[in-house]
Amino acid sequence: AQPKEPALPLFYGWFLSSEVEEKIKCSTMEFLKTLDTLEAFKKHISEFTGDADKEVDLEQYFLTKAPLHCTTEFCDYGKAEGAKEYAEQQVVKDSCGTATELSVVGLIVTPRTFGARVSLTPEQLSLWPTGADKVGIPPADLPGVEALPVGSRAHVTLGCAAGVEAVQTGIDLLEILILQQGEEKAVTVEELELGTLSYMGQGRWYLALREPVTCDATFLSFSE
Ligand code: A2P
Fold this sequence. Notes:
The chain is α+β, with helices and mostly antiparallel strands. It has 9 helices and 9 strands. The radius of gyration is 18 Å and the shape is globular.
């Protein structure tokens, strides 16, 4: 009989320490509370509710996903293209179980997803798969994605609206970054204690944090 190949995981990524996870959950919930009460947000509420007169409780609207992590490679147990090649890289094997610090530089909120934008260091980028920024992006957005720095998609999904898959967070983040570098500038800008809030149209909000938040994390593979 042939020896069985070791199974590939569901995905690889950096997992936030449980201490950081608690801290991030608290501070991001505070941000949602603040956003919810802003007049600028209320003006565009129908993009979340489908009805301008309806209220939304953002803390309930987004269902949290645990454990909090920043995906590098989605392997889907080997079904995803390039999964085996990724897992076989020496840097991937050597990095499993090692600690690092992720830098969260912004937050995104859309009618679909709530996420934290992560800025990767050159060392962390060595674990970022080639072409990962493009996975699942609609063809119309691809030229914009190619103009963004490698690793632009790096993020932590903090929550998804009911029925929305976590993979959407990276797509929403890229869409926002493409809009930011394009001609169209943000419509509304508000200075909050946490940073600068921009409205990008169609229910898309971006908070650029005044101070990046450093998060202890460990690179691991994950299987359910
Ligand atoms: P994300 O990294 O945006 O949070 P699921 O729970 O849906 O099986 O996904 C497990 C993890 O893998 C999630 O973190 C998810 O999104 C990520 N993921 C799921 N599908 C993909 C995909 N096609 N491409 C990249 N990442 C994916």
